[in-house]
Amino acid sequence: MPTPPPPDAPASPEVAEIERAFTRITYLGTRARRHDRLRALAEVPLDRAAVALLRQIADAEPLRPGELAQRLGVEASHVTRTVPQLEKAGYVSRVPDPDDRRAQRIRLTEEGRRAIDRIREAGARGMQSALAHWSPEDLRQLATLFHRMADDFVAYAADEEPEPRVTA
């Protein structure tokens, strides 16, 4: 495993190109017009913030609101405002936290699971159309590398988190 460069070292040309491409993809994926199209195809009347919350819950449910905020990289107030809306719409419910009787976790309801499945299917169909000329081998390789990159980003982000201070 190569030694990482010092934090103040300039990025390699390869990493700079990856960052440029990743920024383009991220921009395209977060545009309001794209979300509106995806929402219409999936028939899920939720804003981008609510969809992001549902995606996180679906990937690691049930979660405490604080864990959800941390995974999304947002303030806890964002989650505490959005969860009641999702709950009222029937997409999520609160369940007791088995580790702490005073706390609750958020989980998807059956309607929430169906909604996130429709959102993911609509997104995958769009991606399938964009990548239709790619070979199955290229798609497998891209998926492998994307998962590897995501895992490394998650590990890097965890390393950047400050250690909780313990007071006596």
UniProtKB/TrEMBL annotation:
InterPro entries: HTH_MarR-typ (IPR000835), MarR/SlyA-like (IPR039422), WH-like_DNA-bd_sf (IPR036388), WH_DNA-bd_sf (IPR036390)
Gene3D superfamilies for the chain: Winged helix-like DNA-binding domain superfamily/Winged helix DNA-binding domain
Domain HTH marR-type: 15-151
PROSITE patterns: HTH_MARR_2
Source organism of the structure: Streptomyces pharetrae CZA14
Stored Pfam families: MarR (PF01047)
Protein name: MarR family transcriptional regulator
Top-rank taxon, per record: Bacteria
